[in-house]
From TrEMBL:
The family this protein is said to belong to: Belongs to the SusD family.
Residue span(s) of domain SusD-like N-terminal: 116-213
Pfam families with a match to the protein in the record: SusD-like_3, SusD_RagB
Subcellular location: Cell outer membrane
UniProt keywords, alphabetically: Cell outer membrane, Membrane, Signal
Signal peptide: none
Protein name as it appears in the record: RagB/SusD family nutrient uptake outer membrane protein
KW Signal (keyword) present: yes
Domain RagB/SusD residue range list: 339-633
Superkingdom of source: Bacteria
Length: 633
């Protein structure tokens, strides 16, 4: 019977060999656990074990949301992106399943299908919290700080699971191995309860956390007050969003005992709580010195023009490591392989994979140079955006090759379009071309040095340049990535979430405009009200809750395009229209503008309502009849 209980506990909660190891240690080898907490040095190692479950967000083989958002696409079937598991590709082409789910965070990586065993992560945190009080040679202030850090990690792991699965079994404490069989047959807890528990853990932790990391050489990436409050803001914003706030589609999502797992009655008070949490997080971040990133020219860089400077403001907010906007960076992840996927081959470096293509349809989300959607701009020829060819004026040489023929789709767009994308005729500012008199321009017409093999080429004609550091270098046949660490939480995200929460709780307000406009100002755009009044066919759009909601969502999609963040935003907003945007591009195997610039459809996604939440592996439902599956899986 004891063996059965242990097996059930391992299957219900973690389903990983790693956790079974813990289960063996607790009853049979107590000395091993005692040794882990017998002194400060070994306890610190266990603290870092709690950190070790943070997802590798900057690695293309680990973060499926890069491709899952369909802002980036890559060929399938056919040529594969080197180093990317087939499961990642399958998920992006609608092959999710319940037998062996792809990127399974419930059970962990099974059969190389990706995922992190988040219940193991929570269990590890609980073991630390249960035992850290026994460590004798540690000062009390440090003990409290470590406890606070692990509480926030535990909150974050719950948040990651809530974001993926919705209602989950909370792991407030570990289930003893001595528990009977029924005790380990856990059920899912309502989403509201999970969000409240995350907030509780953060609130308990904040008094004992530092506001900034003083010992940066050794401690960058460890939990601070701004990080903790940002986690709370993310969780409460998710809980307030349409997916979990008044979603009648989940009326049937209940435990076997009839307990509702999602509140189907809309509660505006959730948005008020989210707004307060965002405000607290922003205040803590500002007090700690965080601010939106603006490019500071290194001393060894020649003078650059205002346009290039503005593009660098945008591009380097991601790739400038530990910049003043990065509230939480993940030190355990680097972006060398990510950049190799996203960097087009060019005259400086040619040894790249270059297969990660920016979806042209997704790139319609970028505004015009007037700061409004392309379909709304009074002065932008939306109907002929794919068919009209134009010549680039010399005045645009900082971003486009002068006197070059291109599509009108690429003309008169906002700075983020040019900062985030590489395409035929676009400039490619890099450290090895240190001034505007020596700009590199991308040539992607078929037969050029950048486009002579489909195994190393964007099949849409665009690359997500945003993810490639300007310091990445080469010497023709080599490629050396500036492997920056991934910024998991940026201040701009809090600004836009705060504006969203204010609009949903109070309607359009000056403060909501203020935080959107801060992000727009960095992008070189006028404020929302001014831009819409002067340039939009729908001038009154920012004055209504519905109109401003649309603006905030588009602003968020633009600001975080290609980062994977929008994978989750589309789901919490219930935006199937965005999830099902077709993958489109130019006719890239052609070598003249007239033939190259012909729009073509490459793949049409088929997401449905069920894809808002990930499936639980059906085996878990078999061994634990108290678990219920997510809708339609």
């Amino acid at each position: 019977m004891k063996i059965i209980k242990i097996m059930l506990l391992g299957i219900m909660i973690t389903c990983t060999s790693g956790c079974k190891k813990f289960l063996d240690i607790i009853p049979d080898n107590v000395a091993t656990l005692d040794q882990a907490f017998q002194m400060r040095a070994t306890a610190k190692k266990y603290l870092f074990t709690c950190y070790s479950y943070l997802p590798d967000l900057g690695h293309p083989a680990a973060n499926y949301t890069f491709l899952g958002s369909r802002e980036i696409a890559t060929p399938y079937p056919g040529s594969q992106a080197p180093g990317i598991p087939g499961s990642i590709m399958q998920l992006c082409y609608d092959y999710q399943n319940i037998v062996n789910p792809i990127n399974n965070y419930w059970d962990g990586n099974m059969d190389d299908n990706g995922g992190i065993a988040m219940f193991t992560a929570m269990r590890t945190c609980n073991i630390f919290l249960e035992n850290i009080g026994r460590v004798p040679d540690i000062q009390e202030v440090e003990r409290k700080r470590w406890i606070a850090e692990v509480k926030v990690l535990k909150a974050y792991y719950h948040f990651l699971m809530m974001r993926m699965y919705g209602p989950i079994p909370m792991m407030k404490t570990n289930i003893p191995v001595s528990a009977d069989v029924e005790a380990v047959k856990v059920k899912r807890d309502p989403v509201d309860d999970v969000a409240a528990y995350i907030a509780q853990l953060v609130d308990e932790a904040v008094p004992d956390l530092p506001s900034v990391i003083n010992n940066q050489r050794e401690e960058l990436g460890r939990i601070t007050t701004p990080i903790a409050l940002a986690v709370k803001a993310y969780a409460l914003t998710l809980d307030a969003s349409p997916l979990f706030n008044g979603n009648a589609d989940y009326a049937g999502l209940k435990n076997k005992d009839g307990q509702a797992l999602v509140n189907t009655a809309f509660d505006r008070g959730k948005w008020q709580k989210a707004a307060a949490a965002c405000n607290d997080a922003i205040t803590a971040a500002n007090n700690a010195g965080f601010k939106l990133y603006y490019f500071e020219k290194p001393f060894d860089l020649n003078n650059i023009g205002d346009t290039t400077k503005k593009c660098m403001d945008i591009r380097c907010a991601i790739s400038e490591e530990w910049n003043q906007e990065c509230i939480w960076g993940f030190p355990q992840t680097t972006t060398s392989e990510l950049q190799r996927e996203c960097a087009p081959r060019n005259d400086v470096y040619s040894y790249t994979y270059a297969l990660w293509a920016a979806n042209m349809n997704a790139c319609e989300i970028f505004y015009t140079g007037n700061g409004v959607p392309i379909e709304e701009d009074l002065d932008w020829d939306y109907n002929n955006r794919y068919t009209k060819l134009v010549t680039v004026p010399v005045a645009m040489r900082s971003i486009l090759k002068p006197n070059y023929t291109t599509s009108s789709f690429n003309m008169n767009r906002e700075y983020r379009f040019y900062a985030d994308l590489a395409f035929d005729g676009s400039s490619y500012f890099m450290k090895q071309r240190p001034n505007e008199d020596n700009l590199l321009y991308i040539n992607t017409m078929w037969g050029s040095s950048s486009a002579n093999t489909l195994s190393r080429y964007s099949f849409t004609g665009y690359w997500p340049k945003k993810l490639v550091s300007w310091k990445t270098s080469g010497d023709g046949g080599s490629y050396t990535a500036d492997a920056y660490l991934w910024p998991a939480i940026r201040l701009s995200a809090l600004y836009l979430m705060y504006a969203e929460a204010l609009n949903e709780s109070e309607g359009p307000t000056p403060k909501a405009y203020q935080y959107i406009d801060e992000v727009r100002r960095r992008a070189g755009l006028d404020g929302v009200v001014q831009s819409w009044a002067a340039h939009s066919r729908n001038a009154a759009k920012p004055s209504s809750r519905e109109g401003l909601r649309s603006i905030i969502q588009q602003e968020t999609m633009i600001e975080f395009i290609f980062e994977g963040e929008n994978y989750w935003n589309m789901r919490r907003w219930k935006r199937l229209d965005l999830m099902n945007r077709p993958i489109t591009g130019w006719d890239v195997t052609q070598n003249t503008p007239a033939t190259f610039y012909r729009a073509r459809s490459i793949y049409q996604p088929h997401n449905t309502f069920k894809d808002f939440l990930a499936p639980i592996r059906e085996y878990n439902l078999y061994v634990n009849p108290n678990l219920v599956q997510n809708p339609l899986w």
